[in-house]
Specification:
- With 200 residues, the protein is α/β, with parallel strands linked by helices.
- It is built from eight helices and seven strands; from the N terminus they run βαβααββαβαβααβα.
- It has helices at 15-26, 33-43, 47-53, 76-98, 108-111, 126-136, 145-167, 188-199; strands spanning 4-9, 29-31, 64-66, 69-71, 101-104, 118-123, 179-182.
- The strands form two sheets. The chain has a five-stranded parallel beta sheet, sandwiched between helices. It has a two-stranded antiparallel ribbon with strand order 3-4.
- Helix 1 (15-26) crosses helix 8 and helix 2 (33-43) packs across helix 4 (76-98).
- Keywords: Kinase, Transferase.
- InterPro entries: P-loop_NTPase.
- GO terms for molecular function: kinase activity.
- It comes from Candidatus Lachnoclostridium pullistercoris.
Length: 200
C-alpha cells in the first residue's frame, strides 16, 4: 500500500521543516514548491503568481440580475483560478501515484483522500510563529512584530479560505486530520522523530 503523508500548516508553524525532516527520516519524496514549479511549466504562469493564487479564496464576479433573470458574467480571473487548481489536482495525483511521498499544503489531504493518507495539521501560538519567522529572516525590509502578526494572520486566513472553497471543509478542524501538532516551544527535529514512528 502506498505511504502518503499530507501536511497542512499555519504560516510560521514549522510545517514545511517538519515535512522535510519526515521525508529524510522515511526516505520518501517530498513535494512543496515543486508543485508550484510544475504548475508554472504547464500553464506558463509565473511561480509567484501561482503562489498568490493558491494562498487565497478565488474572487468571483457577481452575475448581473435583471428582474428575475440572471446573466452570468464571464470571469477570466476565476477561470484562471480553476485552471490552476485543476493542474494542481492532477500533479498531486501524479506525484502520489509515482511513489511514497509527503505533500505539503494545497488541499493534498482532500485531493488524495481515497488513498487514505496520514493527514497532519501543524499549528503554533502567535508568539512562536513570530519567533520562527524571525529565525528564518526572510522579511525584507524587516517587519515590526505588529506587521509580522498581521502578515501571519492574513496568510492563515487566505489558506483557510482557499481550502474551504475547494474542499467544503474547515481548515484546521481536528476532524479533518489524523494528527494535530502544536510546535510552540518544541523542537521540530524531535517532533519529526516522534511522528516518524506513526508513519512507518
Amino acid at each position: 500500500m502506498r505511504r502518503i503523508i499530507t501536511i497542512s500548516r499555519e504560516f510560521g508553524s514549522g510545517g514545511r521543516e517538519l515535512g522535510r525532516r519526515l521525508s529524510e527520516l522515511l526516505h520518501i519524496a517530498y513535494y512543496d514548491k515543486e508543485i508550484v514549479t510544475e504548475i508554472s511549466k504547464r500553464t506558463s504562469l509565473s511561480e509567484e503568481y501561482i503562489r498568490q493564487i493558491t494562498e487565497q479564496k478565488p474572487v468571483m464576479a457577481f452575475p448581473i440580475s435583471i428582474g428575475r433573470s440572471f446573466y452570468p458574467i464571464p470571469d477570466p480571473l476565476l477561470d484562471q483560478n480553476q485552471t490552476i487548481y485543476r493542474e494542481q489536482h492532477k500533479i498531486i495525483r501524479e506525484m502520489a501515484d509515482k511513489s511514497d511521498c509527503i505533500i505539503v499544503g494545497r488541499c493534498g489531504d482532500f485531493i488524495l483522500r481515497d488513498l487514505n493518507p496520514l493527514r497532519i495539521f501543524v499549528y503554533a501560538d502567535m508568539d512562536a510563529k513570530i519567533a520562527r519567522c524571525r529565525e528564518r529572516g526572510q522579511e525584507d525590509p524587516p517587519l515590526s512584530d505588529k506587521e509580522l502578526k498581521q502578515k501571519i494572520t492574513k496568510m492563515d486566513k487566505g489558506r483557510a479560505s482557499y481550502y474551504e472553497f475547494y474542499t467544503g471543509r474547515k481548515w484546521g478542524d481536528r476532524l479533518n486530520y489524523d494528527i494535530c501538532v502544536n510546535t510552540s516551544g518544541r523542537s521540530i527535529k524531535e517532533l519529526a522523530s516522534i511522528l516518524v514512528r506513526l508513519a512507518e
